[in-house]
């Protein structure tokens, strides 16, 4: 059944994306920047609905009161494609720093360009990166919200933390609060896997870290608060969803956090191979 539900959801997901991009393009490109946000945000809401109705995956957001007014950096855990877009409806005017190659994809790149995202050549150094920082400061000065993943790329649930210094460099450069976010959607929408799993998980928005700290002090504080709360939420999520097949990283971390108690899953660990999407 989970295979059938995953097939149906993945099919509906991409049809929903393609049809909306084609049908809503005239409105999107003619509307103001503010009004055009309704197109991607409604697409996200529709995907949340599809995931709940087809797969049976639900989520709850805690800590919305911790989101400040104006510009800030949103720093979520990144485990799956889900968390690349899922929080957009709760962010007023998001901006991403993304691979410049994405801007070259027909239609998708035009959509991204409309929202004035910041393209970057990941292999670039020196003046090019300084220009990216300048552009980021320019967008943040308009009161926008930068979404950036402190570990840079998707990491499996329970994996050893691997924070990059880039977020500390941005923090020291733009002078806005950083809002940490922890969650474990990777247990339900695993990275590079075709299957989707039912259940319920929480997205926990933590109190913002104010601007003005030394970047090194900030980074250590960010790691401490995110990893402490992420571990707590990992145990909660696994125990609330005992049917989930756990990836090895999550099963190992759960054992460490619960002093050797076996994970509640009744299924064997997820095999390492799977269909990429």
TrEMBL record:
GO terms for molecular function: 1-acylglycerol-3-phosphate O-acyltransferase activity. Pathway: Lipid metabolism. It holds the Pfam family Acyltransferase. The chain crosses the membrane at residues 12-31. Residues 72-186 form the Phospholipid/glycerol acyltransferase domain. InterPro entries: Plipid/glycerol_acylTrfase. GO terms for biological process: phosphatidic acid biosynthetic process. Signal peptide: none annotated. Keywords: Acyltransferase, Membrane, Transferase, Transmembrane, Transmembrane helix. This is 1-acyl-sn-glycerol-3-phosphate acyltransferase. It comes from Georhizobium profundi.
